[in-house]
Amino acid sequence: MNKERVLSGMQSSGKLHLGNLVGALQNWVKLQDKYDCYYFVADWHGLTTGYADTSSIKEYTKDILINFLAAGLDPEKCTIFIQSRVIEHAELHLLLSMVTPVGWLERVPTYKEKQIELQDRDLSTYGFLGYPLLQTADIIIYRAKYVPVGIDQVPHLEISREIARRFNYLYKEVFPEPEALLTEFPKVVGTDGRKMSKSYDNAIYLSDDPKVVEQKIKTMVTDPARVKKTDPGTPELSPVFHLHKIFSSEEEQQEVAKGCRTAGMGCIDCKKILIKNVFKALEPIWKKRNELMNNTFLLNDIVDKGTNKAKKVAGDTMQLVRKAIGLY
Description:
single chain; 328 residues; Rossmann fold; Tyrosyl-Transfer RNA Synthetase; 2 domains; two-stranded parallel ribbon; 14 helices; 5 strands; globular
């Protein structure tokens, strides 16, 4: 029986961290058993904000591929590839740019949000403005049924649906409108209490050495009211407790919450429990990463096979697109 297709990717603008693992990768691993999944490294997307310095893009691409596999993606169950190796993405992006109103791109929520967040970069480029078009091409070129997103990301997918609808209206019914596959993406806080992000330099990376992970957790901010160990605190105000809710058992969560409120447990002991549980989650990934780091032949083989499969599907779609437009 044919499985419905799922498409998702990760931008090669930095190394993957705990937020990427919990928020996406662990879910992708589950989806590959139920759907026809296509997962890719979005290296072109990495250029939309990082075009001025591309010195690390190959390193980031390799790191993401290794983490895909280390987290449990199986190339026998899903298709893994690199965006820039499937040139058809660029062709469809170009054709979609001919029919998409500029106003649609300017109203995308992240367009202004990123400009505020990354004020140290010149984002007055078409590549940045046209990011949603390339993203749409990535999705609809595989005629994917679903895109796994959290509820807060649904508005970002809506523009892809609108662009597919406009193309179908102007030319011919080629693209299904991609639907959100709603998943629970827990917010993973960083070491400073804000959302874990490469941009904030507050991330625990999957490639971090165990000693580095331990040190990052030990120096995490906690409830500011707990100046001394004898001061009672509010666990809900502590970023450490937010990570406990993801990585620790219910029993341990209750233990550290009670210890915080009654000042019966110090922050150091609370963090020790968290370190133990984060290590438990990361140790299988670290082991697999070590096995893959120097196995360039295996990585290349997986990417080559995935790319060939992706190019076949993308090529078939582009034949339909060219015919619909009347190019040749």
